[in-house]
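Sequence, please.
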């Protein structure tokens, strides 16, 4: 029995994967998710090495606070699907996922079992909060993943975990700005858990476990867009409840290195009004966004634009996760949220080190 994976339009480390070929839905979510019964919940908590938070929730929440919870549930259900499929493939010794060393294989299964259950707890925490505030919980979609080996899956997990770690920073800021301060502590605790997972993913790629002194921040709208690249269109029952933007995609054609160089990107302008001047804007760590001119090289079939821009690594030490977007303004931008307001295409994800 094989649980197939396939190519999807999403960024692998340093570059964008090819378009989807033959999508397959992943196995059903485990443990009755997103609505486990009492016995299933008990087993989830046992495997997660911890329980659902039971601290009392506030009686009121802002509209943007609701959006934060919806995005978290939306993302966590995707992660549950991903880690469930990965665990099944490793457990069943599917070709590409076979770990020959028995000790390493046993540890990988033990670790993935805990990570899966922890992501289930994260999803249930967000959806239970939505129910507390009399909002519909987010329902899962049908998913597809661009991996066919264990190493590919771990590299992809490291990529989307980087995005999660940046997104939860933005969630905390938005909770604070809208006076939903009682909800900030659970997000900070979740960041710690995701960071622990990320250290293992990086070690498996022969990287040092800590990526950078301050992890790259991002915007909730960029995360919402990125997760949709793993979803089969039209399969999300209540995605329209989430009041966030979805941007048209950006493809990083050239894999940049740890040096200053010119890189190519591409994006389709079909059905989009695009200004005469464009910029490529980079968000890295907690630094002021870097903006460089974008030069159109050619316009091909389906109005796909190939453009060239500087990758200014040496000047800005662009290590770890860099989020690239095409903007209709050259800024200057004070932060990632200002960049989001000017974004036309993106996000593209670049990871170095």
């Amino acid at each position: 029995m094989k649980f197939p994976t396939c190519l999807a339009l999403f960024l692998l480390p340093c570059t964008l994967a090819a378009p989807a070929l033959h999508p397959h839905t992943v196995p059903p979510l485990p443990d009755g998710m997103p609505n486990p019964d009492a016995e299933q919940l008990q087993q989830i908590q046992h495997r997660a090495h911890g329980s659902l938070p039971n601290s009392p929730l506030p009686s009121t929440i802002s509209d943007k606070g609701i959006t934060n919870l919806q995005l978290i549930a939306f993302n966590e259900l995707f992660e549950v699907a991903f880690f469930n499929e990965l665990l099944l493939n490793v457990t069943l010794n599917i070709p590409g996922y076979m770990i020959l060393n028995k000790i390493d294989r046993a540890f990988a299964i033990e670790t993935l079992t805990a990570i899966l259950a922890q992501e289930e707890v994260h999803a249930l925490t967000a959806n239970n909060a939505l129910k507390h505030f009399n909002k519909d919980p987010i329902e899962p979609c049908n998913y597809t993943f661009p991996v066919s080996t264990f190493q590919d899956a771990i590299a992809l997990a490291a990529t989307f975990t980087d995005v999660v770690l940046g997104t939860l920073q933005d969630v905390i800021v938005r909770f604070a700005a809208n006076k939903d301060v009682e909800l900030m502590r659970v997000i900070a605790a979740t960041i710690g858990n995701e960071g622990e997972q990320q250290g293992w993913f990086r070690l498996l790629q022969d990287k040092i476990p800590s990526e950078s002194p301050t992890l790259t921040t991002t915007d909730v709208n960029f995360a919402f867009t990125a997760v949709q690249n793993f979803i089969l269109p039209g399969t999300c029952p209540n995605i329209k409840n989430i009041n966030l933007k979805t941007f048209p995609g950006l493809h990083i054609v050239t894999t940049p290195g740890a040096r200053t160089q010119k890189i190519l990107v591409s994006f389709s302008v079909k059905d989009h009004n695009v200004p005469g001047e464009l910029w490529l804007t980079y968000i890295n760590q907690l630094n002021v966004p870097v903006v460089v001119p974008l030069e159109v090289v050619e316009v091909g079939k389906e109005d796909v634009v190939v453009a060239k821009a500087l990758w200014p690594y040496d000047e800005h030490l662009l290590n770890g996760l860099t989020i690239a977007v095409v903007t209709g303004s050259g800024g200057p931008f004070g932060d990632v949220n200002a960049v989001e307001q000017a974004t036309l295409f993106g996000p593209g994800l670049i990871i170095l080190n």
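The first helix runs from residue 38 to 48.
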